[in-house]
Structures are given as C-alpha cells and as structure tokens.
Amino acid sequence: MPRELQFQVTPEIAAQPELLHRHVARLVQVTEAEIEHVIIQKRSIDARQKAIKINIKATIYFLGESLTEEAIRLPDYPNVSHKTPVIVVGAGPAGLFAALQLIELGLKPIIIERGKDVRGRRRDLKAINRDHVVDEDSNYCFGEGGAGTYSDGKLYTRSKKRGDVDRILRLLVGFGASPEILVEAHPHIGTNKLPQIIQDIRQAIIHFGGEVLFESRVTDILVTQGEVQGVELQNGQRIEAKKMILATGHSARDIFELLDRKKILIEAKPFALGVRAEHPQTLIDQIQYSCDFRGDYLPPAPYSIVKQVNGRGMYSFCMCPGGVIAPCATSPGEVVTNGWSPSKRDQATANSGIVVELRLEDFKPFAKFGPLAGMEFQKDIEQRAFRLAGQTQRVPAQRMVDFSQKKVSVDIPKTSYVPGTTSVELGDVFPSFLTQIMREGFVHFGKSMKGYFTNDAILHAPESRTSSPVRIPRDPYTLEHLQIKGLYPCGEGAGYAGGIISAAIDGEKCALKIAESLTKKYPKE
Predict the structure, then answer these.
(1) Phi-psi bin for 101: left (phi > 0), alpha (psi -120 to 50), beta?
(2) What is the enclosing helix (H) or strand (E) of 514?
(3) DSSP letters along 331-371, please?
(4) Taking a C-beta distance cutoff of 8 angstroms, is the pair 293, 482 a contact?
(5) Measured between alpha carbons, how far is 309 from 286 in angstroms, rounded to an integer?
(6) What are phi and psi of 108, to 5 degrees?
(7) Residue 452 contacts by C-beta under 8 Å, 6 or more apart in sequence?
(8) Are 36 and 65 in contact (CB under 8 A)?
C-alpha cells in the first residue's frame, strides 16, 4: 500500500524528479523500478544551517499501486438567479469567496464594487506610476480582487484556527492557480497570474446567477428600525436586500465615515505603521542562505524578523522576495507604499514593510475624531509624506544607516518604486516616538541578520495600510453587527482578517451565518 515519508534532501535533489525518485528508493531500500510515483504533499526550506535542506512530506506508490490523488473539482454550484439576494459590498477576497459560498448555499450574491474590473484597473495603475494621478475608486487598493490582486498574491496565513485554509487553496487551484500552492509551506500566486484567476471567479459568479456591479460606489447603507434594507449608490440607484456583507477592505475611509455619520457602531483599532525597506535580492540571499551565490535550485530568499524595541514590537510585514515597491495611495494628496512580487520572483530587489505596533493612546492628538482617530493618524502621516516629496507620488526615501544616524542621504539610487524618490530625513514624516523606535530597531535587526543594516538598503515612507484602523463590532456567534440586524462586517476592512486567505475564510463564514439565519439549517459550530 502507499507509504508516507518525511525526509530532508539537498535543494538539487528536491528540484529534479529523477534524483528525488532515486533518493526515495534508497530510503525505502528498494530498486528505482519498484517505485511507481513520488507525490509531494508538502515542501519547505530549512536554512538554519549552512548546508541548506529541503523538508519534504511525500506519498510513495510502489509498482502496481494506482495513484489515488483526488482531482481538484469546483463545487456543483446551483443557479441562483431567482433566489434570495444578499448584497456583498466589495470584490476583494472576502467578498468574492463570500459570493461563491452564497451560491453554493443557494443564495444570490449581488457584488457591489466601487472600482473597475481587473483589466480596467491596469490603466489607472499606469496613471499612478507614470502621471502621479490617483483615481479614488480605481487604484492598487480598490477594484476587482481588492488590494491583493496587484499586491503579490501571497497565500501564507497563521490563521489556521479561523477556518479551512486548504479549502480556499483548493478553490483557487480549481479556478486556475498552480497546484504547487497546495504543496509549498509559503504559497504564492504572483501579481502577474492572480488577475486571470480573479476574473474567472467573477465569471463563475455571474454564470451561476450572481450579479457583479463595477464602478458602483456605495454612498449610503439603508437602515430601517435597526435592520438593513439595502444600499444607495453614487448614481442614486437603490439596491434592496435584507442581508448585507460589508467587505470593503482596510482603505475604504468613506465607508468608515459613513458608518460614523449614521451612528452605526464602529471603534478605533490599533494597527502597525512604518516604512518599506528595499535591499538587493542578492544580499538577502547571502544573509539567509549563508552563501555567495544562491544557485539554480533555491528560490529568492525571504526573511521574517521581529524585535522588541522600547517595549513595542517592530517587525517585517508582507515581505516580497524578487519584488518591487508600488504606490498605493487611494486619494490625491497622500503617499502610501506597498510591495508585490511576480510569480517567478525574478526582480533584482527584495522589499518588506518594516512596521511598529501602535496603541490606541498614540491616537490621542486626533481624539476629536472619535472612532476614526486611528484613521486620521494614518492619514496625517500619508499627507505629510506627500508634501515632503514635492506633492507628487514620488516617495520620501533615505538610506537605512543614514536614517538611523539622522543624516539626509546625499543620493538615493534608483529603486523599484516607479514614480521615483525624494531624499528626505524620514524623521520628518513620523511622530518622534515612532522615529526613535525605528532608528534603534534597524540597528537591532542588523545584529540578528548580519549585513541587513546597510546603506545599500533604501527606506521608502510610509508603509501605513497594514490593517484597518477601525473595527466594526459584530456578535462572535452570529457575525451580525452588534447594532444593525442583517449587516455582516467582514474581512480586513472590518478588522477580522489580515491577508488573502484569512479574508476569504471570513467571507465564507459570513455567508454560512447568513444561510443559517435564513434557514436555521446549520447547527452551531
């Protein structure tokens, strides 16, 4: 019968099926001819020692044993054209996976997205990079697929307790992602491949009777006697439904303002904020793999690092090996950075957000804004960066060592950030307490990763959209808003997720709870 094995091999053996087959035969003490298949279940890199190893979990099929791998199939979605409608505000991962789950449960999703479809978004992204023009509804954060579509497609999550990660990965494979995402310890689709997958999901939603409305900004949430009735769009159109999933993403400031204005309960939430650091990828490879050259059998090295500095966590966030830094402002008059990688991660630079955890007391200068205090704190830094960089989408930048030594960099080399950089003392961008933590923190980082603390690293400011600055409170069991019946705050924007996978899981959970409330079919978890 098939046999499961866990073992370590060199990167060269792991990368070549013939060598791997031979190695497995030696492990189980049979001839190569006696092994029919070696199916890898999980794969990860162990770079803790100088001799790097690849951890492999595999199923071994011997001669004559048939392969029992289960084919990846999408669910048998019914047609829901005439079923009970559910409004889904936002076409990011939370909204899209909520819509798929609603269809599977026999409900009709009506997705309302302020931005454009994936193809239409590309023109607006070019305008940001080339012309420094920010479209408030179509940018790196808003539009089909949400922020993740053009922001890397990393699928790793620590949120295993939140739901079935493997189910989300298998759905992505069913819609065209590489099956490799089921194997890799840190799966990644890539910004160049994710848009087609998102488009295929949208086409399936429409095919099975759902609706998707693009360029349709929600300007009002209709509530009567504490119960959702529908939404009003910027063109005056009203869409009615008794159930609504609010999955707008972490940058939908107008929605947060709308909720606050309508006295719908929201609360300030701590988040993290800092800079995006860019190093030559070869340098990160040398640090992480302890070698002069990475070679042909290892991927571009990532890194993950966290330190306590003055009682606060300072850590890497959304690290992009072989990637680039992108302009992610959502309104004119602000500068925001983020990072992404193509599927091959073949760019010459590595970048990562390096951020510091914030606390609610940090928002006291903006206390007059109530639950929006954190958002205004965030906005103030982004607008300050815009002014310091000459009121364009050029980004304030400084060499890492210069920043720690309070020196304005004499020159900034060309970085992957296409709109360009302006040499600035980054202490002028951030509050003094935050600046001091980062100055000290980079020195500590350099002690843990020899070579990391270098003037070859360029800091771009700010990295400010790590998570939502608000939380929209909901009942922990029903997932309904604490105050408004039929309203289901969902995903990153509501404060309940932190990435593609956890947002998708939360979208599915909200859809399940809606079906439960309508049919009482689903028992308590």
Answers:
(1) alpha
(2) helix 500-519
(3) STT---EEEE--TT--SSEEEEEEEEE--GGGGGGGGGGGG
(4) no
(5) 26
(6) -100, 110
(7) 279, 287, 303, 305, 445, 446
(8) yes
Give the residue from 283, 284, 274, 351 showing the smallest Cα distance to 314: 274
Helix axis angle, 194-207 relative to 93-104, nearest 10°? 30
3-state secondary structure string across 421-458: EEECCHHHCCCHHHHHHHHHHHHHHHHHCCCCCCCCCE
Predicted local distance difference test score (pLDDT) of residue 525: 42
- Token couple for 39: 């199916």
pLDDT of residue 414: 96
**CA 100 to CA 495: how far, in whole Å?**
21
* C-beta separation of 353 from 275 below 8 A: yes
**Comparing C-alpha atoms, which of 412, 417, 380, 110 is closest to residue 245?**
110
DSSP 3-state assignment of 12?
A: helix
Q: What angle do CA 444, 445, 450 make, to 5 degrees?
A: 110
Please tell me the predicted confidence (pLDDT) of residue 334. 97
Distance (Å, whole) CA 404 – CA 439: 4
Quickly tell me which residue has 């793999």 as its tokens.
289
Local mean pLDDT, 10-residue blocks, the chain (525 residues): 93 94 94 92 90 94 81 92 98 97 98 95 93 94 87 62 80 91 83 88 98 98 97 97 97 97 97 98 95 89 95 95 95 95 90 98 98 98 97 97 97 96 98 98 96 98 96 97 97 92 95 92 45
Place of tokens 């990167």: 11
